[in-house]
């Protein structure tokens, strides 16, 4: 069975792409071995204490805690990108493995299918 | 080789649909197969039957529609993305009690599972507008 890597690069509320990317990941987990990788502004999706009341959008960050129940236990982000945004792993809603750049590259090559959101 | 194509960009706003279309043509011209074209995010607007571009611009909906008919290709619109954006076939229009259905007949509404299936069963999944 092929492995799927979902790459999340969009900021959480600037467009619906982040939310629809998470939907795709949840759907993928029903069919295949899925990993998730958060890069660039995509890391902001995982921030704790998001409050979207004043923007009128759905706060889908709460859904990330369901990933483990969906069998998605391989969740990664770029260590460099965390540092670039001044974010530490303890600021995130779920446990994420922060990867060095070379390990990010290795993750891309070790998966069969890459889906970008 | 079996190619699947994912289109995320809206027609006329984004280059993605045209690039995806020309890629699909090239795939077929070189003797390969298209497993499926899946429209997600704003890509669902490609199936809007009401698209009426100026005469000197390409009719993207018509281009997809002909490509699909000539080559028996599935054009799948993601239901979650489509409903959010008001792209409805007759069944969904009736279900949500909307007066108009606006999805072109060449396109079929289905679930995100079709994107995952395309990733798993095509030899290559190529995304436009990510």
- Provide the gyration radius of chain B in Å: 14 Å
Helix content of chain A: 10-25%
Which strands sit side by side, in order, in the main sheet of chain A?
Answer: 4-3-2-1-5
- Specify the structural class of chain A: alpha/beta
CATH domain topology of chain B: Hypothetical Protein Ychn, Chain: A
Weakly predicted, low-confidence segments of chain A:
none
Number of domains of chain A: 1
The CATH level-2 architecture of chain A is identified as: 3-Layer(aba) Sandwich
Task: Sum up the overall morphology of chain B in one term.
Answer: globular
CATH architecture of chain B: 3-Layer(aba) Sandwich
What is the helix fraction of residues of chain B, given as a range?
A: 25-40%
Biggest sheet details of chain B: 5 strands, parallel
The largest sheet of chain A is: 5 strands, parallel
Oligomeric organization of the protein chains: heterodimer
Strand line-up of the largest beta sheet of chain B? 4-3-2-1-5
Strand tally of chain B: 5
Given the structure, what is the number of helices of chain B?
A: 5
Set down the secondary structure blueprint.
The complex is a heterodimer of chains A (117) and B (130).
Chain A: E1 3-8, H1 17-29, E2 33-38, E3 75-78, H2 79-84, E4 97-99, H3 101-110, E5 113-116
Chain B: E1 2-7, H1 16-29, E2 33-39, H2 60-71, E3 75-78, H3 79-84, H4 90-95, E4 107-110, H5 113-121, E5 124-128
Parallel strand pairs in B: 1-2, 1-5, 2-3, 3-4
Describe this structure in words.
The complex is a heterodimer of chains A (117) and B (130). Chain A is α/β, with parallel strands linked by helices. Chain A contains 3 helices and 5 strands, in the order βαββαβαβ. Chain A is globular. The two termini of chain A are 22 Å apart. The mean pLDDT of chain A is 95. With 130 residues, chain B is of the alpha/beta class. Chain B is 36% helix and 20% strand. Chain B contains 5 helices and 5 strands, in the order βαβαβααβαβ. Chain B has helices spanning 16-29, 60-71, 79-84, 90-95, 113-121; strands at residues 2-7, 33-39, 75-78, 107-110, 124-128. In chain B, strands 4-3-2-1-5 form a 5-stranded parallel beta sheet, with helices on both faces. In chain B, α1 (16-29) packs parallel to α2 (60-71). The mean pLDDT of chain B is 96. At the A-B interface, α1 and β5 of A face α3 and α5 of B.
């Amino acid at each position: 069975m092929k492995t799927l890597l979902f790459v999340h690069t969009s900021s959480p509320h600037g467009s619906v792409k982040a939310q629809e990317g998470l939907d795709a990941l949840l759907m993928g987990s029903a069919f295949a071995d899925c990993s998730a990788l958060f890069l660039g502004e995509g890391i902001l999706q995982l921030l704790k204490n998001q409050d979207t009341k004043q923007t009128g959008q759905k706060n889908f960050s709460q859904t990330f805690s369901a990933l483990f129940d969906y069998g998605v236990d391989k969740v990664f982000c770029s260590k460099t990108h965390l540092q670039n945004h001044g974010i530490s792993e303890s600021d995130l809603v779920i446990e994420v493995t922060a990867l060095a750049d070379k390990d990010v590259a290795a993750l891309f090559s070790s998966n069969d299918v890459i889906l970008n959101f | 080789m079996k190619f699947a194509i994912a289109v995320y960009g809206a027609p006329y706003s984004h280059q993605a649909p045209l690039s995806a279309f020309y890629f699909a043509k090239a795939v077929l011209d070189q003797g390969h197969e298209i497993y499926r074209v899946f429209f997600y995010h704003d890509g669902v607007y490609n199936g809007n039957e009401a698209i009426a571009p100026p005469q000197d611009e390409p009719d993207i909906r018509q281009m997809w529609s002909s490509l699909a008919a000539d080559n028996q290709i599935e054009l799948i619109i993601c239901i979650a993305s489509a409903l959010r954006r008001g792209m409805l076939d007759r069944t969904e229009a009736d279900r949500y009690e909307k007066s108009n259905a606006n999805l072109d007949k060449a396109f079929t509404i289905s679930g995100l599972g079709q994107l995952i299936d395309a990733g798993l069963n095509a030899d290559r999944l190529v995304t436009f507008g990510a």
